[in-house]
């Protein structure tokens, strides 16, 4: 069988080759991070969609900025915001749309944010509550409304997912360099400033980008490279050492392989077997320490603390069932160490009441209903896998929110929801 190379293969080879060749001529790896920064900026000029992908998976820039430019966390956020804002300005004027935006989900998303601010006013942790409300707008609202303004065609979303492959390769280069320098840690966070939970979510997201590359690739080489990168993503997901993203990813993957995956029954069975062996290989062979965290839940202080906090949060829901005890109040009323119950429904029910929880449930029902119709309407054509990937990202973000993280830091869930909310007809206006 003849192996056919595509432009995508050459781009991936170039992307991998430049930093690797550069590292051969640099005794210290730190200048390599500078090279990656320069590459990221120049690549954004060529592909503005890359800024969106890199913002969703920002551990590369966090690590590079902190270690090479010695910037503060605030400075990094400003740089990321400028990079994203500039790219979005280009995309907006390039793909200018004047169609009305979907009001129902937008009102819910903005309404939740405004209620978070209001409920911070009577929270015992008012300052933290206001910060949490601000971060909800900074991350979640921003990523939810992005698709409304620059997805003039399905090709726009297709480009973002494919640029996620570029971002993923950069992240893996950084991760490999760190592992070579420092060995395998108990819990791996390449940014060195956020948390392994963030990196676990990013690794899961990257596997979906690589899956999209695999599903849409035409050449054997592209499919093989994409499959290897998916396996590496699962390895790094386990290296992160955070149980929430791992559990969410396994459930999401099996839902996809058994229910969502478009293929005959025998293909689904093969896919499940391959995935099972890939996960088992990454976990059993490489990461025995991670396994022990799952095996000893009853003796693990972190697990016991979360269980105790979840029970207390559930009881506090009835203190003020309609409006809650105030945004961020979990920190003072329950536990100032973990700050939130690591379950989005318990968090909203306790801090923001059944009002906000009801709005979030209504929003999720709307998204899942939209997904059902979108997959039915878009089961053919060059972009038929777009909504499969959006569904995977949303499911992963939703399930992860049941085990880790809080309402203020769920950009994956809200970004995927935004891509699902955009009307299909509007997406097809300028489709090529």
Model regions low in confidence, pLDDT < 50 over at least 5 residues = 1-6, 16-28, 424-432
How many runs of DSSP E, i.e. beta strands? 0
What percent of residues adopt helix (DSSP H or I)? over 70%
Question: How many domains, as an integer?
Answer: 1
The major sheet is characterized as:
none
> In one word, what is the shape?
globular
Q: Would you list the SSEs in sequence order as H and E?
A: HHHHHHHHHHHHHHHHHHH
C-alpha-based Rg, rounded: 21 Å
The separation of the N and C termini measures: 31 Å
What does this structure look like?
This protein is mainly alpha-helical and 432 residues long. The chain has one domain. Helices cover 74% and strands 0% of the residues. It has helices spanning 7-24, 30-46, 49-56, 59-69, 73-94, 103-120, 126-150, 154-182, 196-216, 220-240, 243-260, 265-285, 288-295, 301-316, 330-333, 344-377, 386-400, 411-421, 424-427. Helix 4 (59-69) crosses helix 8. The two termini are 31 Å apart. Residues 1-6, 16-28 and 424-432 have low confidence and may be disordered.
């Amino acid at each position: 069988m003849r192996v056919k190379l595509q432009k995508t293969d050459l781009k991936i080879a170039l992307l991998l080759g430049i930093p690797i060749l550069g590292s051969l001529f640099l005794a210290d790896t730190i200048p390599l991070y500078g090279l990656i920064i320069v590459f990221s900026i120049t690549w954004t000029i060529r592909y503005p969609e890359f800024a969106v992908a890199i913002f969703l998976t920002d551990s590369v820039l966090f690590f590079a900025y902190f270690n090479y430019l010695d910037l503060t966390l605030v400075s990094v956020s400003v740089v990321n915001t400028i990079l994203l804002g500039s790219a979005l300005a280009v995309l907006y004027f390039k793909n200018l749309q004047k169609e009305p935006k979907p009001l129902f989900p937008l009102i819910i998303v903005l309404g939740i944010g405004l209620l978070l601010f209001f409920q911070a006013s009577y929270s015992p942790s008012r300052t933290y509550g206001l910060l949490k409300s601000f971060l909800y707008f900074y991350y979640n609202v921003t990523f939810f409304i992005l698709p409304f303004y620059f997805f003039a065609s399905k090709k726009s979303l297709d480009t973002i997912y494919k640029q996620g492959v570029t971002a993923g390769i950069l992240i893996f280069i950084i991760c490999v360099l760190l592992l070579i320098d420092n060995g395998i840690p108990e819990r791996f966070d390449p940014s060195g400033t956020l948390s392994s939970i963030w990196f676990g979510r990013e690794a899961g997201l990257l596997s979906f980008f690589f899956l999209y590359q695999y599903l849409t690739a035409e050449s054997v080489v592209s499919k093989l490279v994409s499959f290897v990168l998916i396996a590496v993503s699962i390895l790094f997901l386990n290296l992160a050492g955070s149980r929430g993203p791992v559990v969410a990813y396994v459930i999401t993957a099996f839902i996809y392989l058994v229910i969502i995956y478009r293929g005959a029954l025998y293909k689904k069975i093969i896919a499940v077997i391959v995935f099972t062996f890939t996960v088992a290989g990454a976990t059993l062979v490489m990461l025995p320490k991670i396994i022990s965290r799952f095996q000893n839940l009853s003796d693990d202080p972190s697990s016991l603390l979360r269980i105790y906090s979840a029970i207390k949060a559930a009881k506090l829901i009835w203190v003020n069932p309609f409006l809650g005890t105030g945004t961020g109040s979990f920190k003072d009323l329950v536990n100032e160490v973990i700050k939130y119950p690591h379950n989005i429904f318990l968090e909203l029910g306790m801090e923001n009441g059944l009002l906000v929880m009801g709005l979030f449930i209504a929003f999720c029902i709307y998204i899942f209903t939209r997904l059902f119709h979108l997959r039915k309407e878009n089961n053919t054509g060059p972009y038929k896998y777009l909504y499969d990937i959006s569904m995977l990202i949303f499911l992963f973000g939703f399930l992860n929110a049941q085990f880790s993280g809080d309402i203020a830091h769920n950009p994956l869930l809200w970004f995927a929801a935004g891509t699902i909310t955009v009307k299909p007809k509007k997406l097809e206006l300028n489709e090529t």
